[in-house]
Design brief:
By secondary structure, the chain is of the alpha/beta class. It is built from seven helices and eleven strands. Helix 1 crosses helix 2. The two termini are 16 Å apart.
């Protein structure tokens, strides 16, 4: 198994800046007539990153070369305050020049049983396949305090190993239904990026990165290095309980440019 790349930052803004540079570099590498495909995540850290991109990279990235998807979505209307699509549109998509045909949202307002089938077809038809499944250039993942990622929760951990590309998930506390990609898609991505900030994430970051979970598995602990790399972008608070910080994994005082992003 490939060793994950751990990048630690003093602040969310530094983290966002590093991700923005990484994304810019990856888009610049895209051949003519091709696109960079990325599956986005919801949450407070992605929201900060999207705002940073809109404010600082609206004209630095050729957004016409980017195709945007989502790793999960709540089963709500696209204008609902809980919609990942709405958050991304408000913070980023409405502020950049990205063609409408490059945006592939999950229809949270649709019947979930129909939407998992439809969105799976969207992925098959618009993302290059490797080893029989769509392979995103980048998949962004959040990390829940309970160890969930995308919308795969510990009480439904079997969804991670589903043979389907998309599944219906149910939030364990609210019973809200969600659409989520599965491990078949996540682990088949070229580059997988976990985003985690704040002290509330420190325990799970430490448990998963340092393999302290023992026999107890969390959805996030099932994520393996993609075709190219698995990276963690975390702030100092989220990294507080990590015992091993290798020199080549640590960014603490300043951004380290290409040496720090680690993605192929």
């Amino acid at each position: 198994m490939k060793k994950p790349i751990i990048n630690i930052y003093k602040s969310t803004e530094e983290l966002a800046g590093s991700f923005a540079e990484l994304l810019c570099d990856k888009v610049n590498e895209v051949p003519n007539e091709s696109f960079l495909t990325i599956a986005l995540s919801g949450g407070s850290t992605p929201k900060a990153i999207f705002k940073f991109l809109a404010e600082n990279y609206a004209d630095k990235i050729n957004w016409s070369k980017v195709k945007v998807f989502w790793g999960d979505e709540r089963c709500v209307a696209p204008d609902d305050s809980e919609s990942n699509y709405k958050m991304t549109t408000d913070c980023l998509l409405s502020k950049i020049s990205i063609p409408a045909e490059n945006v592939f949202r999950i229809y949270g307002e649709a019947k979930p049983a129909e939407e998992v089938i439809r969105y799976a077809d969207v992925l098959r038809n618009n993302v290059v396949s490797i080893i029989g499944a769509p392979s995103f250039d980048i998949v962004l993942l959040g990390l829940g305090e309970d160890g969930h990622t995308a919308s795969i929760f510990p009480n439904q951990i079997e969804l991670f190993g589903s043979e389907n590309l998309c599944e219906i998930a149910v939030h364990p506390q609210t019973a809200q239904r969600r659409i989520t990609i599965t491990g078949k898609v996540i682990n088949n991505a070229k580059n997988i990026i976990f985003l985690a900030t704040g002290k509330s994430k420190a325990e799970k970051v430490s448990e998963i990165i340092e393999h302290k979970t023992g026999e107890e598995l969390f959805p996030a602990s099932l994520v393996e290095a993609g075709v190219d790399a698995l990276m963690w972008l975390i702030d100092a608070d989220a990294a507080a309980l990590l015992k091993e910080k290798q020199e080549d994994q640590l960014i603490s005082d300043k951004l380290n440019g290409a040496a720090g992003n680690g993605l192929n």
